[in-house]
Amino acid sequence: MLYCEQLSFRYQTRQIIQHLTFHVNEGEFVSLIGPSGSGKSTLFYLIGGLYEPEEGTIYLEGERVNGKRGLIGYMPQTSSLFPWRTVEENIRLSQELEGQIDPKQIKQLLERIGLSSYANHFPHQLSGGMQQRVAFARTLASKKKLLCLDEPFGALDALTRSEMQRWLLSILEEEKRTVLFITHSVEEAILLSDRIYVLTPGPMKVKKEFHVPFPREHRWDQRGNKDFLELREEIEAMLLG
Ligand SMILES: Nc1ncnc2c1ncn2[C@@H]1O[C@H](COP(=O)(O)OP(=O)(O)OP(=O)(O)O)[C@@H](O)[C@H]1O
Question: Is the minimum distance from the CB of 15 to ligand 1 under 6 angstroms?
Fold first, then answer.
């Protein structure tokens, strides 16, 4: 689905990404973990075509997409809902931009995120978790196959975050999209992902790739298990260098 080959990028004279190579298979959930400020959001800007890499190639479904916009679903760290638009109007936005409004799908998405009765509410009338669900529904409404989610649960409290992780997986069971996910939480990455890339601090490149070996449906119950904790410790040690 996505193959980034030997990407390099700099802001002015500062090298942010250097020879970064990684891939995401169709239907996979892949997480990126790296130190704060290492360049993860910048990588999403490159994949989304906002910036062009200085060197290297980004392939989406086999096609070179350096600098091409509008091909991925993107959800930023904060929900970025438009405060003057209702929940339904916010979800509809990506379809409006694509010029193809599908009222039936919007209705289904509202049901799927459990917010049908909030369709005409405004963002400030919702909790943080509800706002993130609306932002995610807006990303899903765009029908893009690859979803790039930039630390979507970072601002939520622990309980809401845990609910949202389970909720995200249940939605993806039905929606079958491919996800590239940025998180600072090693536990969250293990709970959600098929594979995890640990990244180096600037300039950013892949330090190590981990496959998560546990069946997804049992992961929440296995959080205290020896194998789970060992993997978590190994990734944390890798992050600390
Ligand atoms: N437009 C810009 N011009 C110059 N430097 C920038 C610009 N945007 C970001 N940076 C710098 O590039 C580095 C990487 O930023 P980026 O936001 O990609 O990191 P990140 O890994 O996503 O951080 P975090 O995990 O804290 O969200 C940071 O040091 C940041 O200050």
Answer: no
Q: What total number of domains does the chain contain? A: 2
* Non-local CB neighbours of 236 within 8 Å, separated by 6+ positions: 186
Residues 158 and 219 in one domain: yes
Residue with CA closest to ligand 1 atom 17:
41
Q: Say yes or no: 104 and 208 in one domain.
A: no
Ligand 1 in reach of 36 Cβ (< 6 A): yes
ipTM of the complex model: 0.96
Shared domain check, 236 and 149: yes
Residue numbers of the chain with a pLDDT score lower than 50: none
The residue whose C-alpha atom lies closest to atom 26 belonging to ligand 1 is: 36
Contacts of residue 196, Cβ cutoff 8 Å, sequence gap at least 6: 30, 31, 32, 33, 189, 190, 209, 210, 212, 235
End residue of a domain, out of 88, 111, 143: 143
Interval 185-224: pLDDT, tens:
999 999 999 999 999 987 999 999 999 998 887 888 888 8
3-state secondary structure of 80: coil
User: Given ligand 1 and candidates 8, 11, 15, which is best to mutate, with the most ligand atoms within 8 Å of its CB?
Assistant: 11
How is residue 196 written in tokens? 């995890």
Cβ(11) – ligand 1 distance below 6 Å: yes
